[in-house]
Amino acid sequence: xxxxxxxxxxxxxxxxxxxxxxxxxxxxxxxxxxxxxxxxxxxxxxxxxxxxxxxxxxxxxxxxxxxxxxxxxxxxxxxxxxxxxxxxxxxxxxxxxxxxxxxxxxxxxxxxxxxxxxxxxxxxxxxxxxxxxxxxxxxxxxxxxxxxxxxxxxxxxxxxxxxxxxxxxxxxxxxxxxxxxxxxxxxxxxxxxxxxxxxxxxxxxxxxxxxxxxxxxxxxxxxxxxxxxxxxxxxxxxxxxxxxxxxxxxxxxxxxxxxxxxxxxxxxxxxxxxxxxxxxxxxxxxxxxxxxxxxxxxxxxxxxxxxxxxxxxxxxxxxxxxxxxxxxxxxxxxxxxxxxxxx
Length: 343
Description:
By secondary structure, the chain is mainly α. The chain is built from 15 helices and 4 strands.
């Protein structure tokens, strides 16, 4: 039972990242009809927003401490971060320690701006082009963004730790009435799952209960009719592109303590996330979320030692195998609509 719980938790952890990226992909496809292969790059840019803020907060001033000397007897040079100079040592060190959560506030406007620039500057010119053209141009954009990040940040992963408060583990088994220290799970991974749940719930609530969201949903169902009512649906769809970019960016920000950011992490998640979208159903927001968590859990169980011993390499292909089965038996995906991607 403890092994099953651990694998479920691992699956929810992976599934949270899959679901958030797939949700953004589906928002863009459902509103604009664009297959955005640059969406993984937005996830990566979000992660590097956290790296950038961490570096900004660690900018330091150098001073001489005459009371301390190095091994040669010279006065010791001391690096003091500016935030500690401005807010005091205790508050400054706390701000630096919480750089990842604070990066959420930094990433939201940055990612929305990047989304607007992408949509207005490039993607709007491909709305009426074939999906193959959209895939090629957005994939090329993703490679350009990847190389720019590699140039400025280097090729090596950059450790970006979680706050000290979240670096421990949580006794999940004791919460369920099991013996202590049976099911121990990293606290930040549980936090990531909770964060993903909040973002997903917020997006669905926004689309379901706000006037803006209801108009967007109407536009997704019948764009021409909404336009005939005098509503500027294109402007609203552009805003949704920015929101989708922000969702991907926030997923990347919170993922940095789990997987140190590197320039190719966007590509690593992109293919898997597109498989998730296809399995859930192109254009279906609930399908994207459901498939993300289901495939995450399935991949987690396929990574168990016992399963790999029986079927070597199954953990590397299980998601694609499931995608093949789903598409052969239900081409629309689990919750896809008739006619989507069938032309």
